[in-house]
Fold these 4 entries.
Entry 1:
Amino acid sequence: MKRKVNHFTDDFRFQVVQEYLNTGKSQAELQKKYSIGGNNCISNWMRKFGTSEVTVEQINLQQAMSKEEEKTPRERRLEAKVKELEKALEQERLRTLALDTMINIAERDLKISIRKKSGTKQ
């Protein structure tokens, strides 16, 4: 009886290797998840791509790099100021809309012209 041979693309293999290295899942779990046969497939793929298991030193390096990617206090202050200004702008838009509505109602009900006409000379 012939065995079924699965042919995986290099992209898929690389994705599985990255998942193994980054998530801490065992090779057996990944083999079951992706229906990968053979006991050494993922290890062979790791050798093919020139990767190895993550060491404690590499984990510490990744954590240090992620801390550097955090925002600086200045960036956080600037983002807070932007949010504050956006909120103030929205309030002014609402205020302007309310005033325009009030003028429209006054002009309609009182039948007087409140807005200055653009073509009039002073």
Entry 2:
Amino acid sequence: MSITYRHTAHVHRETENRFAAANIASRPSPAIVPQPAAVIIEPRQLIRDCLTRALRAACGHDVIAFSTVDEWLKVCEHTPAGVVLLSGFEAAGDEELSQKIHRLAQAKKRLPTVILADAEDIGHVVNALNKGVKGYIPTNLSLDVAVEAMRLVRAGGVFVPAGCLRGSRDPLASRAVKSPWTTMFTVRQAAVVEALRQGKANKTIAYELQLQESTVKVHIRNIMKKLKAKNRTEVAYMVAKMQNNEKI
């Protein structure tokens, strides 16, 4: 049996095609670098690491973290990301926090900013939103809710915790507006001050104001800071003195 040149050429081409296909299949595929879903700015090392790992596992995207706003601003122009999570503050009324929000807003690459804070107060939330923040996540929310809140902000929405909206309709908070110390505190803090003046325990205050006990403790710390009081007893004494002066 004779083998023609055409048949030989056909076999040769088929062999070349097989080698070419095998060569392509053996080549390493280019690495796909996922776009970071979030940038975390948190000064405390342990909390920063925990937040980074938790969010990375929960959202399925890369998460990068920095200890200061300045560190992020140095690389923000060349670093893709979707949202900034600003953490490390008890409440959104701090002057230092206001400066950080302003600096993030003035960056060449402006990303929507979400606040992670201990306090859940309608006054703090409104204050943060007025500064340009697109989300406010209190630390008493679950990780799943926090992730969904950040996704909402990335998509162009605004997240406000439902708890603070319920608190704004709280009758105790409404009565606190009439107190003489209203100008010094937010509505929620004024309600806590009134409860402290009456000698109520943290658990009772939390129940009546529909708050977490940890949130009540945050409010008390902020109240003590504003009054420069050493303890809750001194807060009650100073508030009673303020009320007496108001009546006079």
Entry 3:
Amino acid sequence: MTPQLLVALPADTAADAPPDAWQPALAAAGAAFETIACDTLVRRCAELAPQQILIYLPGPHALGAVRDALQAWAGVPPCPLLLIGTAALAPAAQAELAALGAHAWLDAGALDAPALQAACARAQARWQRERELRAELERLRTQLDERKWVDRAKGLLMAARGIDEDDAFRMLRGAAMHANLRLGEVSRAIVEAAQWAEAINRAGQLRMLSQRLVLLAAQTLAGIDARGARTRRKEAGDRVRQTLEHLAGLALDAAAGRALEHVQASWRSLEAALAPRLSGETLADIDVRAEALLDAADALTTALEASGARRALRIVNLCGRQRMRVQRLAKDALLGAMLPGGPWRERLAPTMREFEVVLAELEHAPLSSPEIRAGLAAARDEWLQLMRGVAAVDRAEGRSQLVRASDSLVDAFDALTASYEHSLQVVMS
């Protein structure tokens, strides 16, 4: 039989035994009860689900045992909690017990059936009132939290669609009704989709920056706008550090967290290689380490896309990868001209094919807008300029064209990736 009262004793010693009126008072009150030790209170309460808990406190010396027993509930016991004591407690001790969830006190010297019933009624009333107040507080917190998510989601929709606040709210409300979800749930999902899209975009930038750093180092060594290349190399390094700092602040799952650790280690290796004076030998070593960073950043981007669990996020990753291919192509063409015998010329054709395939896929993707279509058309024109630079890379004018076109294409695909990141379809995915 489930006991109405679960009676907990702090110690099993004769000196701390309950008063003689203990059991007669419980019996006269008509309560079925079970007596246990305090150190089993939480476990037995979960097993028996009593209507009330009664703890006997023989004196201040037993306060530690009672405190240890109640701390697991963090001030929210699962049912009313009544204390029976033989001595007056200090105000601080009473405040501590109240914070731990005690709802009523009864002097053991006044223990009889009517007094016990009255004390249990007080404990029940206070516990019920506290539960109602906690429920109301939780409801208000939920409303405030949902309001914050709704406001953020409206801002995203307004930016993505170019609409006013009322239209954004109607769109949110319609999506919530269609999905049979709370408005706050839909709003939070929209904000999280935007956050994942931004994370994928930023992680994808690391792929491009791994190649750009080598390209800029090669430009410096080849004397192609060496001063400007050194400045841009510093800017690229700062951008890597800022991106890693941003990604480290996200709540990543285990797979994405491990992938980020690999990226951070690869960056430290590349950063160390970039510090010494440039030469043909150090440039080849820099490229090896940059390839390791590229692989690590690619794995991180894939992990983030999987974490987001939204099919529309793939377009952000797909477009962002084009930035890396542009820099990789320009880097390999320049290194192939500067350092004969390496693997760089062999990588040109596969990179070109991959770029063309993805560009065609982006051009035919339904996820588009007039702005995106215009950006893709401009990118294809600039791609032809880059191809001319690759073909003429053995001449000074060809190298200059290669660098100009690759920089223009990186800017173009940066803008395109941002457009996909903030597009309505991705945000509402």
Entry 4:
Amino acid sequence: MSKGPVRTLLVDPTVTDGGYRCASGRLTTEENGCQTEGEAGRLPDVVDEAIEETLRQGGQVDVIEDAQAQKQIDGLAALLRFRDES
């Protein structure tokens, strides 16, 4: 399994949002968000897709229950992996 760029996905469980998957595989909430990446496929819940993709790529998903923290992440946020290439 290849590890993707997301180490930990932070999710507000009260949020669902339609979105799109670009031909490149990237997820977006904007219909025109795939302009240079090919045709966008419609998704009923982009948050659910982001959760599945994070788990598929070896990441962790943390559900945020605290109302103040939910406001800070605005539905979805990610902590990314970084590698030192030197």
